[in-house]
Amino acid sequence: MRVAVYSGSFDPITKGHVDIIKRAAKLTDKLIVAVLNNVNKKYMFSLDEREEMVSELFKDVSNIEVKSFEGLLVNFMRENRANLIIRGLRAVSDYEYELTMAFANSEISDEEIETIFLPAAKQYMYLSSTVVREVALNRGKLSPYLDKYVEEKVLAKLSSGGVK
Ligand code: ADP
Hints:
By secondary structure, the chain is of the alpha/beta class. The chain has 6 helices and 5 strands; from the N terminus they run E-H-E-H-E-H-E-H-E-H-H. Strands 3-2-1-4-5 form a 5-stranded parallel sheet, sandwiched between helices. The chain is globular, with a radius of gyration of 16 Å. The structure holds adenosine-5'-diphosphate. Adenosine-5'-diphosphate (ADP) is lined by residues 8-10, 14, 16-17, 20, 87-88, 90, 94, 120, 124, 127-130.
């Protein structure tokens, strides 16, 4: 069975992430969407909230599982018997970082883990969670970037004063 992992912060999950997840799920037997908890990072949404949003969007897709992780992706993959990393590749800015990570993950897994890059969809090439958070904070239109469910969560977060 081919088990792949697509990891990210998903703070929040954007239409660009959703597109990669749908395409990746078609290429693998099982796709684990791994929501990263970096203890040194300040997020807009808690780990539980980020995980919940991803789970809600893919609750009807049988070969997608949503989990959270901390620390090395390679360790998480071993625990979950996965050997394929899926990454989305946007415009040139992603290239260097993504290649560095791919080489490192290959090396520290004794070449057991392979990375596959999927090109970002044209319309999401310049979309990032950072852009979404910036637009949200300034009360801009979010529908081009977020699924309805996620947009509602962002609006609720803003109106609860959860974000300054
Ligand atoms: P972001 O950079 O938006 O904060 P993450 O750190 O959660 O996103 O990224 C996780 C993965 O998703 C990375 O492989 C990243 O390149 C990919 N990704 C992020 N945004 C997009 C997008 N708009 N289209 C395709 N892939 C994307």
